[in-house]
Amino acid sequence: MSYKVQAFYGKPMEKRDSKESSSMEEQELMKIYSILANPTKRKIILFLGERGKASATELRRHLKVSTGSLYYNLDDMLEYVTQDEDRRYYLTEKGYKLYNLILREYERFREFFTERSHVLGKIADLLEAVFIPYLQFKKLKEKGYLMLSLGTFLFILSFIGFIITGSDVTLLAISNSDVFNPFKQSLGPLSVAMKLIGSWILISMTLEILARILGSPKFDSDFVIATLISLSPTYLYPYAGILVNSLDLIPPYKTILSSIILRFLQIISLCFMTASLVIFKHIRKERAFILSSLIFYISLLLEIRPTLEL
User: Which of 103, 117, 211, 250 fits a disulfide with 216 by CB distance 3.0 to 4.6 angstroms?
Assistant: First the structure.
């Protein structure tokens, strides 16, 4: 069984005794290869994968093909491309699998023709696998109940941490009125809850709007929960603050160490948001990283603004 087919189905196909099943697999294989070999069909899959939905006119303008050619190719991909009630085309579940397969193949070609150190390439792949957990978010997407439970648990844990330390949060920016007295409470429980929920919803909706602009499919409530999980590394920072406060260090060193830990946790959240955008909103990882970075830099501005005002 070829690599491409294994990648499309997510796992190697099991051998079947039925001749009919074998015939269906062969037909599926031929269909996939015919799409991969056809530039117009590939462009349709890629365009809809990036845009989410598009009208026939938008497709024709982008592809620069005749109306007859467009409809011929669309009719030949009914399992991969369908229409909504407004007659706008979008990818089916199979279509998104094929879209991701094409992206992976393009990535393999780029790696093959790009000169780079084998060692550096391995290091880059390892860092991406560790810090941008696509596979883990994909598993969470398949198990909605687990994702909801995990999101709820992390939110409660974060809430308790902010209550204990009296920290303040806006988006990914976290501050404390008294860094070296973590048990001094400056916000009430209701204020903390509203701040956490407000930051979470604001980040989720901002990413949702930006993803829709880039052509992502319609609103997905699971993505909102995935965003909460993505924010959890940063929102668990108060516990790191308590740990730093317990160390026998002079105040300036505590401040430096706390800042380093906070920045590291924010970067982890950025990577998690990138993975959630790729898995839940079907956005290319480069664009997903840019959108996540936008949230990160806005948060940095919120952190340094009080300092600038002083």
Answer: 211
